[in-house]
Specification:
This protein is mostly helical and 716 residues long. The protein is built from 20 helices and 2 strands.
């Protein structure tokens, strides 16, 4: 049993070694012509410069939180401060590594596309896999080290609250990286598209457009670094949540006995989430090796092969690992874990639930299905009907997502109870927390497939700017279209896990709050020792309304930020077309001032990310210090509406984007038609939906929940 954290360490090191190997493969590939190298260098320079500036700004916030954790009376300080710092640093390192290799993969994928999709697809995947396995490897490494350091080696007080602080550190980086990267990329994308494609009538990624380089930089900072930080936080949170919950449930199993240094058989419950993380990592490594380019085979089937292999292996490994860890039906307090196979079933339910949510996202965002084709059809009557249909399909997509999440929660709750031969909130919610790990157990492959998308997108832009033959752009367009769908699938995994993880963190919050209730106020607690949140309590009702409102305000702030930044970009692109002679006409030797556009996006993103990012941390702190019951209601309202808005916005945006690409491929008259212009407008509306506000929503609900969990002793 004690070998589990060491197995996780080995699995994380193997993941990092695979990332190193893939990085070497990418860097050995040919970059193409001198012009391609020049364009790639400009994109890489802009992306890395932004990331360094963003990290400098975020480091101020991280330093402030580090000090706050030192001085506020919370469980596990000062160890919690250092665990928090470790989470923030490892998340930043993962983003930096992934960004460096992704920007290197852009030109190499474009050059490989000259030989066909079979050559370009695996190269783009390997570029994305560096981010994927850096994220998953460093996250599992950090969790394993924290568990060994605080729980096993040092035995600090409230060690599991310290482990939770690691998740808070990861969340801090993810929040600002997602918001800042999303604002950057969409300012450039919206500004460049509206002036370039709609007003000037020039192709997407045309080298005459001053915003083209900034758009390519944005794909990397938003959809690679931002997404990587997002999934780092999601993956870490999915493991931390059940570990912390189990630590709070063990005293309940023992009927009030405090958690001793020697956990006995109960230690298996604490290590089980880490075991699943390690087994899923090994399965992901094997799966990643199955992605190979082959002529004549579906691009989608080839790209998803690794994910399906990883999922199948995770199912087998989870069953075997569960039976080995819990062999002999261990007794945990007054409970006997007589049917441990049902704990494995919670993992499988989560894994299949994540895949199913991803599939529904693919259905609503892929050009192969009715929703996107319906939006494209509406383009024949103008941008208004395109916008209406996209909004409708996005809202409709919440129905299957909610049904799947509710089903997953119900099944995992029941399986958790059956495993112990009991029913009830205390036992069942451990099963629910495990389902979140199942959803993200193959994070390495999920992130790899997601990060593949912006690499393919940038490869297309480089092919256009380097004036490569049209057939090369045709190859990159096919890769890019698939990337839009895979991105929607990954967002489905992330937001689905957010809802389930937040539920586990919420239960941990209520148990921790119950543990801190003053003597003589036992009426505030339920039979499991958790604080009671009564809907008839006025404070709880007020909190519900405030929490339900917060995701709407957050979405409004981030979308307005994109709008303001895009407006500045539009003004600059128009100015350059008007003031630089021969630029719009494409006269030889005339080049746009791309650096100015990069600087506009950079300054706007850094400035605009502060308010919505700060909101996620400040609001639960303010409400918690006023009334903990109100904070409980606040979290409940925010989780529900945040989940729905995230699904709606991500799927609407993805559907608008692929409807535009569907038309550009020749449907409804193709490029240059009124239908195409209408679809471009829909796509620009969807840009902040799918790449800024929507993806940041799942981080929002988890940040607020984990902040509440870490600081609840100070509130009381």
């Amino acid at each position: 049993m004690t070998a589990v954290p060491y197995l996780a360490l080995i699995a994380s090191v193997l993941a990092l070694l695979l990332a190193y190997y893939f990085a070497k493969v990418v860097l050995r590939a040919d970059q193409g012509t001198d012009l391609m190298r020049e364009i790639g260098a400009a994109i890489r320079e802009g992306a890395m410069a932004f990331l360094r500036r963003e990290y400098k700004w975020v480091s101020v916030f991280v330093a402030a939180m580090f000090v706050l954790l030192l001085i506020v009376p919370i469980d596990g300080r000062p160890a919690a401060s250092f665990a928090y710092l470790m989470g923030a640093v490892l998340s930043s390192v993962a983003g930096f590594i992934g960004m460096h290799i992704a920007t290197a993969a852009n030109t190499r994928t474009a050059n490989a596309a000259r030989e066909g999709a079979a050559k370009a697809l695996p190269l783009a995947f390997k570029g994305g896999a560096v981010m994927g396995f850096s994220v998953a490897g460093l996250a599992l490494l950090g969790i394993s080290i924290n568990y060994l350091l605080w729980v096993k080696w040092l035995g600090v007080d409230q060690a599991f609250q310290v482990v939770a602080a690691f998740g808070l550190g990861a969340s801090s980086i993810a929040l600002f990286a997602r918001i800042g990267g999303g604002i950057y990329t969409k300012a450039a994308d919206v500004g460049g598209d509206l002036v370039g494609k709609v007003e000037a009538g020039i192709p997407e990624d045309d080298p005459r457009n001053p915003a083209t380089i900034a758009d390519a930089v944005g794909d990397n900072v938003g959809d690679v670094a931002g997404m990587g930080a997002d999934l780092f936080e999601s993956y870490a949170g999915s493991i931390v949540a059940p570990v912390v919950l189990a630590s709070l449930l063990v005293p309940v199993f023992m009927e009030g006995d405090s958690l001793a240094a020697d956990f006995g058989d109960a230690e298996a419950l604490l290590m089980y989430p880490i075991l699943i993380g390690a087994l899923g990592m090994i399965a992901s490594i094997v799966g990643a090796l199955f992605v190979r380019g082959r002529e004549g085979r579906s691009l989608s089937a080839q790209l998803h092969a690794g994910q399906y292999v990883a999922m199948a292996l995770t199912v087998v490994f989870s069953i075997v690992g569960t039976l080995v860890l819990f062999r002999g039906s261990p007794t945990i307090g007054n409970y006997v874990l007589g049917a441990p196979i049902f704990l494995a079933l919670t993992i499988i339910v989560g894994l299949l639930g994540g895949w199913a949510i991803g599939f529904t996202s693919e259905y609503f965002t892929s050009e192969h299905y009715r929703p996107v084709k319906g939006i494209a059809q509406q383009s024949e009557t103008g941008p208004a009907t395109v916008a209406i249909e996209g909004i409708a399909q996005g809202k409709l997509s919440t129905l299957p997502a909610v049904v799947l999440v509710v089903t997953m929660i119900g099944l995992s709750y029941w399986f958790g109870g059956v495993a112990f031969g009991a029913t009830g909130d205390v036992i069942g919610l451990y099963g629910v927390a495990l389902a979140a790990i199942g959803m993200l157990s193959v994070t390495g492959v999920i992130v790899a497939v997601d990060a593949y998308g912006p690499i393919a997108d940038n490869a297309g832009g480089i092919a256009e700017m380097a004036e490569l033959p049209p057939e090369v752009r045709g190859v990159t367009d096919s890769l890019d279209s698939l990337g839009n769908t895979t991105a929607a699938v990954a967002k489905g995994f992330a937001v689905g896990s957010a809802a389930v993880t937040a539920l586990a963190l919420f239960k941990s919050f209520s148990l921790t709050a119950g543990r801190s209730v003053p003597d003589g106020q036992a009426s505030m607690l339920d039979s499991g020792g958790a604080i009671i949140l009564n809907i008839n309590d006025t404070a709880v009702t007020i909190g519900l309304f405030l929490g339900a409102m917060t995701p709407f305000i957050f979405a409004a702030l981030t979308m307005s930020s994109v709008g303001r930044a895009a407006q500045a970009m539009i003004v600059e692109v128009r100015r350059q077309f008007a003031e630089i002679p021969g630029l719009r006409e494409g006269e030889p030797g005339v080049k746009p001032d791309s650096r100015r556009c990069v600087d506009i996006s950079t300054q706007a993103a850094l400035r605009e990310m502060l308010l919505p990012g700060g909101l996620a941390v400040v609001l639960p702190l303010v409400i918690g210090f006023i009334d903990v019951n109100a904070l409980g209601g606040f979290l409940a309202g925010a989780v529900v509406t945040g989940f729905l808005i995230a699904i709606y916005m991500a799927n609407s945006g993805g559907a608008w984007d692929n409807a535009k690409k569907y038309i550009e491929a020749g449907a409804h008259g193709g490029k240059g038609t009124d239908a195409h212009a209408a679809a471009v407008v829909g796509d620009t509306i969807g840009d902040p939906f799918k790449d800024t506000s929507g993806p940041a929503m799942n981080i929002l609900i988890k940040v607020m929940t984990i902040v509440s969990l870490v600081f609840v002793p100070a509130f009381l």
